[in-house]
Amino acid sequence: MEKIKIITIFGTRPEAVKMAPLIKELEKHEEIESKVCVTAQHREMLDQVLELFEIKTDYDLNIMQTKQTLTSITTKVLENLEEIFEQENPDMILVHGDTTTTFASALAAFYKQIKVGHVEAGLRTFDKYFPFPEEMNRKLTCAVADLNFSPTEVAKNNLLREGVKEEDIFVTGNTVIDAMAHTVEDNYEFKTEQLNYINYKKRKVIMVTAHRRENWGDGIENICKALKTIVRENKDVELVYLVHLNPVVKDVVYKHLDGEERIHLLYPLDTKETHNLMNNAYMIMTDSGGLQEEAPHLGKPVLVLRDVTERPEAVKAGTVKLVGTDTEYIVNEANKLIRDPKAYELMSKAANPYGDGKASKRIAEDILYYFGKRDVPAMDLKSSK
């Protein structure tokens, strides 16, 4: 039997987390020859995920360098993948989301007339500079993709409006929900000792991440002022801020919050630690995209420290709320969730719009259908419950 050769390509930790369960699913199918290529656009954090999910790579481009630019990432990926594609001649590559690795890999495959499958396709803010460069990375990837695996109907409709054929779009759910079945544990003991000393039952623990480029400067300043106020005004609150290592962020955070009572400043955690901290937290405050999908799966309300989001279905479902970076507004919205049990319950019990943990199975079946190995595609998310 002639197998379908697929190379899954990714370069950052978020991509790795979301592609890991799909890689594991592809390995189960005898009709598929699955290979893995990492660009290592990020290095250390990527390696943590590979180890956690026991992913073995066939190719490691190891492109990360100090002060790398979008141009350097793009050109290195293009040049390295050209040689790999000539050697392997895959039937399809799979890429995820909106990183520079994603766009450059899709472009490299297009140059070789290799099919492209785009996982988490169709997210849009409709502002090409927000988030930057992610919004254009995903749009440009969409332009060359042959198969689009959309997490929700909203994402599918975005693609339809852009002229993508309906038969090339499959609604699957988000693979990050699949991944969390592997990472979240009851009675988890943290490797980060400081987290084991927090009383998660008696304290309302708020987990915070905020580092996006568009929030640099006044945005991070305002967020930090809000966090300090929230903790000082609520004696039952304890806050854990996972501080990005970039000095543009780190220096501001430490200036405002270092030494504050009941505020813990930690460096970014590995994926398993992060997911289990989220599971133990009372609520999440973040400017991250991925956490808007992960936290609702655990029943945790999310206040999004951004003015717009490419995940509007979560806002509509009521699992997340946009609060921007205005200090007073952030404080007011956080206090509602801390002090009003009804407001908290409405968000914590809202239905998660990102799926049921079977996205990877659907994607694998849809790929097999595309290549004629199945008579019918996997059922759309809406009709598979």
TrEMBL record:
Keywords on record:
Isomerase
On whether Ion transport is a keyword of this UniProt record, the answer is no
Q: Where is the UDP-N-acetylglucosamine 2-epimerase domain?
A: 24-366
Assigned EC number: 5.1.3.14
Q: Name one GO molecular function term.
A: UDP-N-acetylglucosamine 2-epimerase activity
Keyword Isomerase part of the UniProt annotation? yes
Q: Which residues form a coiled coil?
A: none
Q: Which Pfam families match?
A: Epimerase_2
| NCBIfam families hit by this protein | wecB
Which family does this protein fall into? Belongs to the UDP-N-acetylglucosamine 2-epimerase family.
Protein name in UniProt: UDP-N-acetylglucosamine 2-epimerase (non-hydrolyzing)
